[in-house]
């Protein structure tokens, strides 16, 4: 067992099998993927974990007969309570122990890492674009507002003053939008000890004050999650933006009295974020029973000024992603009609 402990640090799924195809060792990544402990798998036949056991059995037979040095194929791993996991499998014989090493790479993992990289690159590009655009808008905006106020003082006609009032009002509205665009870059990152459940409870109480009738916010907490270093104010704002978005999407359900949001916390193991591997990470889900994110914007919901509802500024999720990325984390979204799941991942110590 001790000789295999280093395999726990790998993000690939690994099982060491004996000559009969029974599990001698399963690393932490495989435990997490299958939803089973290595103690449960120890001594069991590993082929039953595959949707097509014959594929692995044939590979094991070839390894025992020295038909190949390594055999590669694609298969699907069965997971408890989840869909099967497509994997690329490599089977090779370990010398001189005559044990078989089975390495598996989730096909979805590479796609997920590529998606994370795109999100990070897009967030960085958005940050530079927003900062530059906001500063370019701000200076002439002050001049327009000041000129409208001066003109208003010289006008005697109430009808003409009404026009200058509109100019001032719209300039103020645009100024507020610019301030929101610049908000994440103005405030320093104030680090302290963060209890994620205190963050959740603060957000829950704020949203329930805003929606006292027709909305239920359920808790599903793992209270064993440790405190970590971070900025509580930024995390409260990030989570508040996501939960408020969910509540706004649930307006019909709120009117019907069956709107449901769930705040769910878990510990994820062996998580890769930004090409860096973390042993533990916070996994915070915001799940709602609303209509889902429209397909037309599903791939762009974290872009600035992209909104799925009339009157939305399209900044809430952009700012949430920025604040979470300041904690070396990431927000992902999985949405279909009847269930939308925003997942926040943040490394834990």
Beta fraction = 25-35%
Briefly note the CATH topology name of the largest domain: Heat Shock Protein 90
Provide the helix percentage. 40-55%
What is the CATH domain class of the largest domain? Alpha Beta
Poorly predicted parts = none
Report the order of strands and helices: EEHHHEEEHHEHEEHHEEHEE
Give a count of the beta strands, DSSP E runs of length 2 or more. Answer: 12
**Could you name the CATH homologous superfamily of the largest domain?**
Histidine kinase-like ATPase, C-terminal domain
Shape: elongated
Q: Average pLDDT, to the nearest integer?
A: 84
What can be said about the biggest beta sheet?
5 strands, antiparallel
State the CATH architecture of the largest domain.
2-Layer Sandwich
Radius of gyration, in angstroms, nearest whole number: 26 Å
Strand order of the largest sheet: 2-1-5-4-3
How far apart, in Å, are the first and last alpha carbons?
25 Å
Q: What is the number of domains? A: 3
Keywords:
5-stranded antiparallel sheet, Heat Shock Protein 90, HATPase_dom, 3 domains, two-component regulatory system, 349 residues, kinase, 5-stranded mixed sheet, single chain, Beta-Lactamase, elongated, alpha+beta
Structure description:
The protein is an alpha+beta fold. The protein folds into 3 domains: 2-107, 2-Layer Sandwich (Beta-Lactamase), CATH 3.30.450.20; 110-186; 192-347, 2-Layer Sandwich (Heat Shock Protein 90), CATH 3.30.565. Helix content is 43%, strand content 26%. It has 9 helices and 12 strands. The chain has helices at 28-34, 38-41, 53-64, 107-154, 158-186, 196-210, 232-249, 251-256, 316-325, and strands at residues 13-17, 23-26, 70-77, 85-94, 99-106, 192-194, 215-220, 228-230, 259-273, 276-288, 330-336, 339-347. A 5-stranded antiparallel sheet has the order 2-1-5-4-3. β1 and β2 (23-26) form a beta hairpin. α4 runs antiparallel to α5 (158-186) and α7 (232-249) packs antiparallel against α9 (316-325). The longest helix is centred in the middle third of the chain and has 48 residues, at 107-154. The radius of gyration is 26 Å and the shape is elongated. The two termini are 25 Å apart.
